[in-house]
User: What shape does this take?
Amino acid sequence: MTRFLTALGNEVRKGLLFAWAERLQIAIETPFFAAFILLLGPVIGSGHQIAAGHLSWTLNSHRISVLMVAFLPAMFFFFQGVKLFWRLLGEIQAGTIEQVYLSPLPSWLVAAAGRLLAAITETIFLTGVIYGLVSAFVTLHFHWTAAALVPVAFLVITGIGYSLIMAGMTLLWKRIALLQDGFLFLVMIFAVSALPLFTIPGWFAGIGRVFPVTADVASLYGVMLGHRGVTGLWGTGGLVWVAVTAAAYLAAGILAFRVLEHVTKVRGALAAY
Amino acid sequence: MTAAIARPGTRTLAPRVFARRAFANEAGKGLWLVWRRRAITITGLVVNGFFFLMIQFLIGGGHLVLPVLALTLPGLFAYVVASTAALQGAGGIAEEVTAGTLEQAHLSPAPPFLLALGRLAAIAVEGLIPALVLVLAFGLGYGPHWVIRPDALVPLALVIVDGLAYGLVMTALVLRVPPIGAIVHVFNMAIGFFGGMFVPITIFPHGVEIVARFLPTAVGTEVLNTALAGRGLGAAWADGTLPWLLVHVVMLAALGWGTFLYTVHWARREGGLSPK
Assistant: This one.
């Protein structure tokens, strides 16, 4: 147990040292994401005004609050995925991931769990900063309740599953940055589609349901803005779908990581090629 | 005075032939890597196309507003070229640094600018293929009302150069700032949002529009929109966007080129061409 905790602690510490080394990046990305949320508010659903060449850029408190419910979880997901990917890639290229695998401890612990914990810790801080920046411009109205922790917990589990899939793919195929970027953008778009901001085609909603953040965002919206509980079972934000999404992503993540890691080791491709 | 000494049994190449071969080797290496990563590239293409479609629904409130698609499709083209150049340029050079092959390449008597040109050519191909496929797919699929005339090729070429110059800046910075990789994602998102892929930059509040005009590809997309609307390059010249685009492209290309040569020079002096 002590060895387990020491290894986990070492990996978390390494991850947080990475985060500190990337403080310039953090200083750049947090204001950008805050500006992105603020500017996206007036744009959504304004296609005809845009086509006519004029758009009213007033910041609507309710609309930005609704958008925050989608974007904070989506950004949590984005940051966690991007940070895990680049750090893992850096270690693969530097050859240190191969050293990590020399450890007698299980690979999921040293190659994934510690890094994930570090990325989650850093990401919680970053989303907090973004929340602070946005609320400096617009008054945000939420119904703060402990029940919101339920979809948040499922979001973290889903994120772990997704990160394990990406970690496995990174081990095997290395340069998957384009894929990572594109997929995370889709996650954001579908997260917004879970909100009652506009009507969406049925097929759009159907695809959105299988994306990792959509169900959690629908549930969070219900708790924090829709004056609903989290115990409703059915629908996109229902407890059943939220739990099924989390369980499915976690299972897929564990499976994908084990398989892709095995293939990578068999090919002798843990280090840079 | 120095003179080249050929080993017995070898022949010295004329400088022009040598330069051509060095360039071709570097470009060939890049293209071979593109081919090796074809599954990722194709998946990325599909995901980018789907992402663009989703943005259209988001902005149209669940509907596709064709005039908005026509105005933002050039932004998608520019985004794909620029983001691919930055991601693959930065990722590629980081990979070569850690593998030690960048150091090997620079043992060659070929000047660094030739190697950079070869690298850029491969990146350009990698970005242009998916960008063209996406524009053709959406263009043929939805038939935006564009006036396609030869003068549109001018902003199109300038957008491509602007995107590649941005990629070169990011590629060069990897040698001095190794964690730049993760920052590239943020810059790419900024280019996507402020560069005209969501909404035309002329729609933004005035202050944001001014900032957006400094970002890579944003003004190029605006001029391309002017040309595709059938107003001609004269209109773009008269409203000041075409002159600004020319200045932007020249400045960014000079910045990319200068940064690349400087960082390579620094890396050769300080031993930064391989992992420390």
